[in-house]
Amino acid sequence: MIVFEISALASIFAIMNPIANVPIFLALTANQSQAEQRILARRSALIAFFIVLFFAVLGQPILKILGITLDAFRIAGGILLFFIAFNLLQGKSSHIHHPNPDEHAESLEKDDIAIVPLATPILAGPGTITTVMALSGGYPSALTGTVLVMLAFTAVLLVTFFLFYHAPWVQQHLPQTTINLITRMMGLLLTVIAVQMTSTGVIGLFPGLR
Questions:
Q1: I want to staple 114 with a disulfide (CB 3.0 to 4.6 A). Which of 6, 7, 43, 72 is the partner?
Q2: How far is the C-alpha of 185 from the C-alpha of 192, rounded, in Å?
Q3: What residue spans define the domains of the chain?
Q4: End-to-end CA distance of the chain, in Å?
């Protein structure tokens, strides 16, 4: 159980990459006061929590209704994570989790950016949701797996909220080169997780490959 929880923490931390999200948060909230930034940080974290909780609890029943096996989902999720990891290894932000320039400009014109793009796709994007669902389904007890994965996600989300809450201080004391280095490290870790997730799915679909 402890090993699973540590693995879940590492996986979710790698895919969310809280430190690298700080400059993005500051760019999106550049015209806001510090008090408004902190309100947005709190709201986006809460919304992201409920989005991921929804998929963690109802994701697998939805897959069953659609006739999609967990192993097929793992393969698709592994491929998705690999492309995200590839961008991170190059020090780039993945468009899957972060808005492109047009989406960024559009989001600044909206009254509330706590939901889009902060809560989703930045905090609770496709990669995070995929990772949470795959991890939950990989534990012997579905209920226990969901609880453990949500605890891991909550821990990473709290770290992200703390960094967003103190975003100006973090950016002032953390050089961009350090952020880029951490991003590449997370990309390497996420690459390994993506390969493992894909291989587990392939073996599950084709047991004869063992």
A1: 43
A2: 11
A3: 2-200
A4: 25
Cis peptide bond N-terminal to 175, omega within 30: no
Dist. CA 84–CA 96, nearest whole Å: 7
Over the stretch 121-168, which tens digit does the pLDDT of each residue have?
999 999 999 999 999 988 999 899 999 999 999 999 999 999 999 999
Average pLDDT over residues 40-57: 97
What is the Cα–Cα distance from 94 to 116, expressed in whole angstroms? 16
pLDDT band at 91 (very low <50, low <70, confident <90, very high): confident
Give tens-digit pLDDT for 62-87.
Answer: 999 999 999 999 999 999 999 989 98
Helix and strand element counts for the chain (H, E): 9, 0
Given a contact cutoff of 8 angstroms between Cβ atoms, the answer to whether 91 and 183 are in contact is yes
Alpha-carbon torsion (115, 120, 122, 128), positive or negative: positive
User: Radius of gyration of the chain from Cα atoms?
Assistant: 17
